[in-house]
Amino acid sequence: MDATGASADLDPEEFRRLGHAVVDWIADHRAGLEALPVRADVEPGWVRERLPAALPEDPAPLDALLSVVDDVVVPASTHWQHPRFFAYFPANASLHSLLGDMLSGGLGAQGMLWSTSPAATEVEQVLLDGLATALGLDPGFTFAGGGGGSIQDSASSAALVALLAALHRAEPGWRERGVTGTERVYVTAETHSSLAKAARVAGLGARALRTVEPVPGSRAMSPQALAAAVAEDVAAGLVPVLVCPTVGTTGTGAVDPVRAIAEVARPHGVWVHVDAAWAGVAALAPEFRHLLDGVELVDSFCTDAHKWMLTAFDASLLWVREADALPAALSITPEYLRNAASESGAVVDYRDWQVPLGRRFRAFKLWTVLHGVGLSGLRAHIRGHVALAAGLAERVRADPAFELAAEPSLALVCLRVVTGAGPDADDDASRELLERVNASGEAFLTHTVVGGRYVIRVAIGAVTTGPEHVDQLWEQLRAEAERVRQRYAA
Amino acid sequence: MDATGASADLDPEEFRRLGHAVVDWIADHRAGLEALPVRADVEPGWVRERLPAALPEDPAPLDALLSVVDDVVVPASTHWQHPRFFAYFPANASLHSLLGDMLSGGLGAQGMLWSTSPAATEVEQVLLDGLATALGLDPGFTFAGGGGGSIQDSASSAALVALLAALHRAEPGWRERGVTGTERVYVTAETHSSLAKAARVAGLGARALRTVEPVPGSRAMSPQALAAAVAEDVAAGLVPVLVCPTVGTTGTGAVDPVRAIAEVARPHGVWVHVDAAWAGVAALAPEFRHLLDGVELVDSFCTDAHKWMLTAFDASLLWVREADALPAALSITPEYLRNAASESGAVVDYRDWQVPLGRRFRAFKLWTVLHGVGLSGLRAHIRGHVALAAGLAERVRADPAFELAAEPSLALVCLRVVTGAGPDADDDASRELLERVNASGEAFLTHTVVGGRYVIRVAIGAVTTGPEHVDQLWEQLRAEAERVRQRYAA
């Protein structure tokens, strides 16, 4: 409020007018997105040079800010919502989800405790229970079945809290004495770097990570190698704490055998955390559910609604089989957070499922997606992109200028240019092709390295990506390949 | 996309129509908020019983969802944006900030790397540099001065990453070997529980926390006691890692002496992290800057824009004096995240300043606040609430039915009912008064315990709280006190 007692904020009628203007900006931006370059083409410092260093002393009209957005922010943005964004994994910020995010902001609730917003907590519980069913997860992952789900900010944070719950389970003294240095965490060379980060954050250090060998000829974790590693560590007096099978690795979409891994891990009490950040949502379609075979045996399962399930970041879905596992590891209750509902034991306080205390009503954006698209629409979204990937893979297979660097996995296609001049030349040609495509602004791709070789990743899955966009990409890949092959084959 | 290749999402024109409807819903909700009960008055399970357990198979119109929001979500929400919300600390979700959050969603950028959205990164850098100046922080906290700021999701996460940077600095082997069990972290009994949580998450365990005694007769950390504790620990072969002075504790708004603490800590290489989550933003007004005296000597400083600075959660501002401190502790770079800009060293990759990999364009909501309100408006917002708290404290002092349980701190007033029948009766009467006020729905308060005694906290600071709302609260407090005093004094 100011000296007259008036609020510093917009009054609701001003917000109505400006809010409509912002909605119009968003509608226009999305409608015109396809005409923009996908990748920002600016040098470091370009934005900073164009903004005043000092903050404004006095209020200014929104129009002035929207002009800066048009002139500075948009050109300096890599457009993740562009239909020819094929880089990393998709980050679906659907317009459906934006409606929910707006409502969440309008309500302005803090969902740290049940009592600070019963609706934020219970809507999340209902949606996560419903999604567990829709994904074909075991009922043990629902609140009704003794487990439960929560929305984390990211799969990285989900992996971290799963690791903390695993440490608490493995070592009863962990909350008091911390880690001992004997803990071990099992991954593969393809596991997401967030697992290494979680181990570092949790005080285990890199030495706690044990990289399990793959099944020969694949990139999937070998259950036999895992069994040997665990046995060796147990014999050495170490404490196997957690194994992380991945369903859909970031590099190539490889799938670790969840069932066989869980069967090795369980007799030793090792926590099994499935990282299905990208691929897990595909299980909405029954024909892809085999990827999660054995998930009923694991302790925690994570998939991101904010990658390929139309929900704007952040909305990583984490289910655990024991509803008390995360609170047991993470809860600390000072006086100012005590309340009757929490002490009754009849409610979930989601602050105890995460590192931060505060939390937004994130379930709202998930809700508007589920309500506005329906499970049938989500399945169509997934199936459509998988079909596009299959079509692209067919073209790659049939074209001597390319090879598949891995079998296509759902909507991810990994390919290389074939020059005929050997793998080193293919590496260079592939790198050059990717750089040329990205510099064109027509599409945006990223790369990985598989078996020491440079690989172009085509991750199909942006909200508005349709057949024409993959066709356009393929035409560009072919044209650029022709150019670079001439150079490298020479 | 569906089988016809059409997107699963709204088309932009549908979004324009529905987005306007959602903006209207928000405007109406905020305009009508004052007439709603502040606290949700529902039993556990009330929301779950009213929502279908199964997710919808087919899409449904937004209107149907908005009806459920009106009928189920709003009654089951504790209204943090209500002008008579005086509980916890405020969680300002101003309408200005909602505009920015909408734009962030519209752009749908992932700001994990500079290259994945140069604008998201550089706008954040510019705003954090500008805010450092506006708060009167030392230039060493700006990127221009070798340090830098970032937006974290919460002060809890800020404390965690500060601790990780401190561990890395204190123990060069930390990233490889993890923690050793000899680390010590210095807090007081009033320090926020997020520090204990950070120590637990980081693998240190509760034993690593050393609770430093207060200056006699106060709740502020004693620098002498800190010096003695550090000396004792060093002599015992332990490793003092971090001390956390608080500027504005959660319980009573107490302020630890930052300068004297930093002077004790620095010679031992102990990282000083200032937790000014609630109170720090007051330094926008020069007359409150004395609270931060000595902050130029510390390693990291955190204050929340999402509490009392009009910016919707999540927007916790963390500055560090060494721009490389967090990346050095947290960076891990797999092949699929490698890119030319990062390798040039000319850019900031904010993923290395936090635990999660992904991040929203959170600076957008901070930007619309700063642009739409200006620093002058923010100062007026802070000053107005501090003045209201001073007025309330005067009334408490002058009324024999009450006493101040602590000196007022900025906009936080801590009070107790005085029954005349001794402190136990005062405890009971105060508890009953708080419960009666909260049950009325007219206002919402929370409590703490000071020196073993029950204390009612009145935290003034909601976006629309003005003099009339504090007047209404005071009238209610007086009326309820009269009632409970009769019972307890009897």
Automatic annotation (TrEMBL), chains A, B:
Keywords: Decarboxylase, Lyase, Pyridoxal phosphate. Its cofactor is pyridoxal 5'-phosphate. This is Aromatic-L-amino-acid decarboxylase. The modification N6-(pyridoxal phosphate)lysine is found at K307. PROSITE patterns: DDC_GAD_HDC_YDC. The keyword Ribonucleoprotein does not apply. GO terms for molecular function: aromatic-L-amino-acid decarboxylase activity; pyridoxal phosphate binding. One of its GO terms (biological process) is carboxylic acid metabolic process. GO terms for cellular component: cytoplasm. It comes from Pseudonocardia kunmingensis. Gene3D superfamilies: Aspartate Aminotransferase, domain 1, dopa decarboxylase, N-terminal domain, Type I PLP-dependent aspartate aminotransferase-like (Major domain). Belongs to the group II decarboxylase family.
